[in-house]
Design goal:
By secondary structure, the protein is mostly helical. The chain contains 16 helices and no strands. The model is unreliable at 1-8 and 336-342 (pLDDT under 50).
């Protein structure tokens, strides 16, 4: 038996508070990925020929599957660990490594909290537009009913994500049927600028990203390699399908009238006001699944760094600042600063993705057998993922220019 084949499959045994079914694992991937980003893709797609949009969807799907499986294999090697622990065990070693570990912990925590603030604000805005609730009241009510799901643990999140995914698919089917009841417009065919191509790729990549929830799937599957692979591939596939369907029906229904206000606003204006109600439902579902996934991930990251803190107290440490910061952002003097901070969150996530690929590369050299990716995790594909992550970040910056 060769040295490589004798190498241990992972460094630590995977331990988890609960076990996910296949549908729950897939739901966690879909739930984290689908969110506000999907609503902006049709606007960017309207500035590109339809065939270019299709190519971008295919490329983004393939690259994101590779990235997510790299994250899965990295976490799998380290007993289902979250990002910070994986980085600490691979590239952040020694005294200097400890400093970088805490920097990564702080930046990642800030990114998650700011993202969750945007989810709470988005739902509160939908409740205001739907029922006329004051924003502060919508934030408090939503926090109590939605954020508490994570309080009840990982299994509760998996079950909630699963049923929300089914509900979002049902909403998308309703919108698709309704779109074909109005006069259809030709799909865009004119090429504009390379900036718009890059911008669309950046937006689609953002809409498909579920990297922070992958370690949760690794833990929830108890290291079942088949379940991990299926969850990542099907979860990303469902996300790209939702993006494709929403983009297609928006372009067909609205034609050149696609605006920056979001696909559901455009569809509501074209098909009828009832779409707005359906849109509120989809928005609340999409943002809720992202809120659950993000707070669960950060809860586990904090628990890994501070083992003596109980999981539920870790949840309080994660979720309560989200509510407080969101309420403070209602004060006009703080609002602009909050928006600026929130814009930094996406940059932090891009840097995190790059660090994870480097950590994966280090781990793969230590354990060459690669149980999840095989040849698809080789150095050439690692470089490809890094390059495309940089392309996505450039696209996010220049795409609106």
């Amino acid at each position: 038996m060769s040295e490589n084949s004798a190498a241990p499959v992972q460094e630590q045994e995977i331990q988890s508070e609960s076990r996910f079914s296949y549908f729950e694992s897939i739901g966690v991937i879909v739930g984290h990925g689908v969110g506000a980003g999907i609503l902006s893709v049709p606007f960017m797609a309207s500035h590109n020929p339809w065939w270019m949009s299709l190519i971008i969807l295919i490329v983004a799907f393939a690259v994101n599957v590779l990235l997510h499986l790299m994250v899965a294999e990295l976490s799998y090697r380290h007993g289902g660990a979250q990002f910070v622990q994986c980085l600490q065990r691979t590239i952040f070693k020694g005294k200097v490594g400890k400093v970088f570990t805490w920097i990564a912990f702080g930046l990642l925590g800030l990114s998650v909290i700011l993202n969750c603030c945007s989810y709470i604000t988005g739902v509160a805005t939908a409740l205001y537009q739907w029922f006329g609730l004051p924003l502060w009241a919508g934030m408090l009510i939503y926090y109590v009913f939605a954020a508490l799901v994570v309080f009840f643990g990982m299994k509760a999140v998996g079950i909630s994500e699963k049923y929300c995914v089914f509900a979002m698919i049902a909403v998308m089917l309703v919108l698709m049927i309704a779109a074909f009841t109005v006069g259809l417009n030709p799909l865009p065919s004119a090429f504009t600028t390379i900036n718009k191509v890059l911008g669309l790729y950046g937006m689609v990549s953002f809409a498909l990203s579920s990297v922070m929830s992958v370690p949760t799937v690794v833990k929830g599957s108890n290291g079942n390699k088949k379940q991990i692979r299926i969850s990542v591939i099907l979860g990303t596939g469902i996300n790209v399908t939702l993006v494709f369907v929403l983009t297609l029906i928006t372009l067909l229904a609205c034609g050149t009238g696609v605006s920056e206000n979001g696909a559901l606003v455009d569809l509501s204006g074209k098909i009828g006001g009832w779409v707005g109600i359906v849109g509120y439902v989809f928005t609340i579902l999409a943002l809720s699944t992202s809120l659950w996934a993000n707070t669960l991930n950060l809860r586990d990251i904090i628990h890994e760094q501070f083992r003596k803190i109980p999981l539920r107290l870790c949840w309080v440490i994660v979720s309560l600042p989200c509510l407080i910061i969101t309420l403070i952002s209602l004060i006009p003097v703080f609002n602009a600063t909050f928006v600026k901070f929130a814009s930094v969150a996406s940059v932090i996530q891009i840097v995190t993705n790059l660090a994870i690929v480097v950590a994966y590369s280090v781990t793969r050299r230590k354990f060459p057998d690669s149980p999840l990716l095989g040849k698809w995790g080789a150095l050439g594909f690692q470089i490809l993922v890094i390059v495309m992550a940089l392309v996505a970040s450039v696209g996010a910056v220049i795409g609106t220019s």
